[in-house]
Each structure stands twice: as C-alpha cells, then as structure tokens.
Amino acid sequence: MTLCDCPTLLCLSLLFFFSHYSPSLPKMKFQDYEPPSSPKHMIPKVTLLAILVILIFAVTPLWYPLLSYSSHLNINKNIPSSSSSYDQRQEENLPSTYVEKCDIFSGEWVPNPKAPYYTNKTCWAIHEHQNCIKYGRPDSEFMKWRWKPSECELPIFNPFQFLEIVKGKSMAFVGDSVGRNQMQSMICLLSRVEWPIDVSYTTDEYFKRWKYPSYNFTMATFWTPHLVRSKMADSHGPSNTGLFNLYLDEVDEKWTTQIEEFDYIILDGGHWFYRPMVFYEKQKIVGCHYCLLENVPDLTMFYGYRKAFRTAFKAINSLENFKGIVFLRTFAPSHFENGIWNQGGNCVRTKPSRSNETRLEGTNLELYMIQLEEFKKAEKEGRKKGLKLKLLDTTQAMLLRPDGHPSRYGHWPQENVTLYNDCVHWCLPGPIDTWSDFLLEMLKMEGVRSAIS
C-alpha cells in the first residue's frame, strides 16, 4: 500500500475502532451480535457517521506533504528519453535532489575512447581556422576526453534529447568568435540527427540563423565582441591590433533589438578586451586601456570589461517582452606560452592538465571574478522581473585544456595570416564540444525545477 492509500487506511481503521472498541458497543463476533434491548445504550448511527466524517476531514490534510513528496520522486519520468537509434543514449533521468547536490563545473578530464562523435569530414560547419585535422595536426588524443564532475556523472551530449527539449524554441549566441565557435560545435553534434537550413536575414557571416525544420528550432549568432556599441578608431593602434572606441553606457543595437524573440540567450565576451580601447561614457572620454593617448588615464581593461557586462545585462533585463533564459558562458582562458599571441607565443601541449597542476590566477582570474560579480547583480535584478539568468561556468574546465587549441594547425604553413598560433579558439572536434554537455544538463535541470515549482 502506498502513501496515496493512507486516507483509505485511515477510514478502515476508524471503522474498525468504532465497531470493536466503542464503550457503548459490546465486543463480540459479528455473527453473534444482537441489538441491545435498551436504546439508551446505543450511539445513533448518524452520530457515529458524523464523527467519522469529521475525523477524516481533520486528519487527511496531514498526509498532503507526503503525497506531494511522492509525486516529486517520480518527476524525472516525464523527461524526454533519447531515441532508441542513438548508440550513446544515457540514463540521464535525474532525481530532483541531484539539481542541488552536484556541481557539474568542478571536476577533471578523463579519457573517453568513444569520442569524437563527428569528424572534420562529416561536419561542414567547422570554420577553416578550427579545422585542426585538415591542416595537419598530428595527434588525436585531444579529441578523446570527457568532463567528469567530482560528485556525479555528466552525460555525453544526446542530440535527440536536446532537440526534443528545444522543439519549437530558439537560441541566440551573443558575443565574440568563441561564442560562434560554440554554435558551430553544436551544429556538428546535432548533425547526427538533422542538418539545419540557412534562414539568415543577411549575407553577413557575423549574423547567421539556422533552422532545424523537423523540430522548428532556430539558432542564431550575433557578433558583438565588446557587447556594447564600439567602432574602430585606428586599424593599427599602439599594438597593431587596432584601437577601438567603446561607448560603455550604450547598447549594441545590432543584437539588443533582435533577441527579444529568443527563448535562450548564451552571452559571452572576453578576448577582445585585451586590445587597446578608449572608453566613452555620456559621449565623453573617461579613460582607456593601453591607448597611449595624452591626458587620457589608463583605467585598464578590467574597467571596460565590467562596464560592458553591466550595460549588456541591463539591456537584457530591460526587455519588455523577453521571457526566456539567459546563460552567461564564462570566460574561456587562452593558453599562450613563451610569449603573447603576436610575439612567438604558442600552445603545443597534447593532453589536459589536472586540477592540482594549474590554477586560475592573474588576468584570467580577474576577468572571471568580474563576470561573476556582474552576473550576481543582474540575476538579482532579473529575478524581480521574473527573468532567469544562469551561469554556464566553463572557465575551470577550459583552464585545464591547453591541448585543445588550433595552434598553427588552423591554416597551411605557407599562408600569411594574422593569428599565427591560435591559442584562443578551439579545435573541432575538441574540448569545446563539452559545452553542449553542460548546456543540455542545465536545460534538463531547469525542466526538473520548473516541474517541481
């Protein structure tokens, strides 16, 4: 008998009590019972019935919390399961307690001989400068790892399940080229189910839209390397990487006017803030980062980074009709060694680091902490308006993957390219595919929370 049967059990117990232990009723077998000769010893049946009804209504509500708990235990049965044709299907139906107890972003990389789940020959979405195998990278072990959280398992991305969850919805990747790198990775992972069709409103490669017809799911990328309005002031600048004017209190309308219709927004930003910048607020110069201009104080990149994220979050929280979920995908560190990107720096490692071999520090730590601080403020403000902001915390996992970058294998050796050794973007297939593992798990967790609430 389950908890749901407890009111029935109560009724039977009360009936048994009144029929056997009432001081006004003699104890005897039912077949031997005869009515007492005098009516004054009998409790009227109507009175007994009334008492019974009152007790039932008084006691039954006490069982409601248990009934509710029982339904929560079964909530994961409604999570869509993977297709039987998918050979990597998982038993991801997680109990609700899992949502709170496991930090999926803290862990280690462990071998995964089954990876990769696509190749550079089976996926056309890979940009040339991330097509490491095509351009001669000799090792392949960098593709054969998965992320293992310390206290639980993180299932490998299931494309069937993902598309079922996002059916009829839309997702926008807002940020720089690493964000576009993430979207391309997801297209490759989803290619085992379906290829998208191009439904872009423009021929500009920085603003692409892809639709999966069978699932009515749309993905879009919005190029906004500084998140706020910016423009090139000098194509060379102090370091030959350009000098940019950043209007830190002004939104970049190329994305802020477009995202209200989306169900999910994945926001990112970081590497462009290393370049020289002049900061404007209220249309006036307030400082800069390595601009080397007279009478302009160097406020450092961190000042602009904080203000840019603050403005971006404010823009999202100000949207009148947006009802979706915002994921802040945290900063993914680069791994240049023996010099910076344009001074001989390179990334030649061939396997992940262990968590006890390296730590987040210096500039990487500062950028990460700024993101967390601004996210916390924005999440609090968004909650007041019924918006959901979530942290897609990829920083620690990617800090441990110095082996995952294209290095010099993003172009032919004889080509004259700007970024000779790329230790910023990620090879495809490669470690960045795990970001889809994270994202799907977060969507499943959100589904469990929504069902419970």
Automatic annotation (TrEMBL):
Q: Mind listing the GO molecular function terms for this protein? A: O-acetyltransferase activity
Provide this UniProt record's keywords sorted from A to Z.
Membrane, Signal-anchor, Transmembrane, Transmembrane helix
Where does the Trichome birefringence-like C-terminal domain lie?
A: 154-442
Topology versus the membrane, per the UniProt entry?
Answer: Single-pass membrane protein
Which cell locations does it reside in? Membrane
What residue stretches are annotated with the Trichome birefringence-like N-terminal domain? 100-153
A cellular component annotation (GO) from this entry:
Golgi apparatus
Top-level taxon: Eukaryota
What residues form the membrane-spanning segments? Answer: 48-67
The entry assigns this protein to a family as follows: Belongs to the PC-esterase family. TBL subfamily.
* Entry-linked PANTHER family: PROTEIN TRICHOME BIREFRINGENCE-LIKE 20 (PTHR32285:SF229), PROTEIN TRICHOME BIREFRINGENCE-LIKE 9-RELATED (PTHR32285)
What name does this protein carry?
Protein trichome birefringence-like 19
